[in-house]
C-alpha cells in the first residue's frame, strides 16, 4: 500500500470537513471500511431478525465481500442457506450499497 504524502492529504487547518477526513482515511486504510461494514451488519442483523435468530448467531466475518454467519442452530442454518440470495439482497439494500457479494452460513 502506498503511503500518503503531504500533497495527497488535506489538513484541518485548511478547513477540511469531518466527511472529507473520513473519506481520506477510508482511501488510505481500506481495512477500516471493512470493519465499519461489519459493525453495521451486526447491528442491522439484530434489528431485522427476531431474538431466536440473533441468539443462534455466534459470529460474523466479512472478507472480500463474503459475509460468513455462524449459526448454532442447524435447522435455521439450512433455512438461511436456502434463502441466502434474498438475505444478501436485503442486507445490501438496507446498507445502501453492495457490501456483500456472497453470504455463507456455517
TrEMBL record:
It comes from Candidatus [Bacteroides] periocalifornicus. This is RNA-binding protein. It comes from the Bacteria. InterPro entries: DciA-like. Pfam families: DciA (PF05258).
Amino acid at each position: 500500500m502506498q503511503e500518503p504524502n503531504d500533497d495527497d492529504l488535506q489538513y484541518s487547518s485548511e478547513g477540511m470537513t469531518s466527511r472529507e477526513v473520513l473519506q481520506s482515511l477510508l482511501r488510505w486504510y481500506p481495512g477500516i471500511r471493512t470493519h465499519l461494514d461489519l459493525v453495521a451488519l451486526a447491528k442491522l442483523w439484530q434489528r431485522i431478525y427476531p431474538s431466536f435468530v440473533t441468539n443462534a448467531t455466534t459470529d460474523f466475518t466479512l472478507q472480500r465481500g463474503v459475509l460468513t454467519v455462524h449459526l448454532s442452530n442447524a435447522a435455521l442454518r439450512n433455512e438461511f442457506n436456502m434463502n441466502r440470495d434474498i438475505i444478501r439482497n436485503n442486507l445490501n439494500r438496507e446498507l445502501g450499497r453492495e457490501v456483500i457479494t456472497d453470504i455463507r452460513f456455517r
